[in-house]
Amino acid sequence: MVYIFGIDVPLLELLTILSIVVVVYLIILEFEFRQLKKSVKTLVDLTKRLRGIEDELEDDLKLLKGKKKRRKRK
Q1: Span 9-67, pLDDT tens digits
Q2: What is the tally of structural domains in the chain?
Q3: How far is CA 7 from CA 10, 15, 33, 37, 71, in A?
Q4: Fewer CB in a 10 Å sphere around the end CB: N or C, the chain?
Q5: Whole-prediction pTM value?
Q6: Residue span of the structural domain in which 35 resides
């Protein structure tokens, strides 16, 4: 028996309760990490798409600048 805050608690029951709490906490953490993993994956995909769009815009701007210079020469 162990005394916690003046209450007589059997040691085996205390260890059982603490281990159950730890297991439940680990299960909750696993679900949270899975959700974070999905969120990070979607953010990485969006970043790749944005970089692709940025490259396309840069190419389009170069083309437009080239056309403007040609118009000025005429």
Answers
A1: 788 888 899 999 999 999 999 999 999 999 999 999 999 999 999 999 998 888 888 87
A2: 1
A3: 10, 15, 37, 43, 91
A4: C
A5: 0.56
A6: 2-73
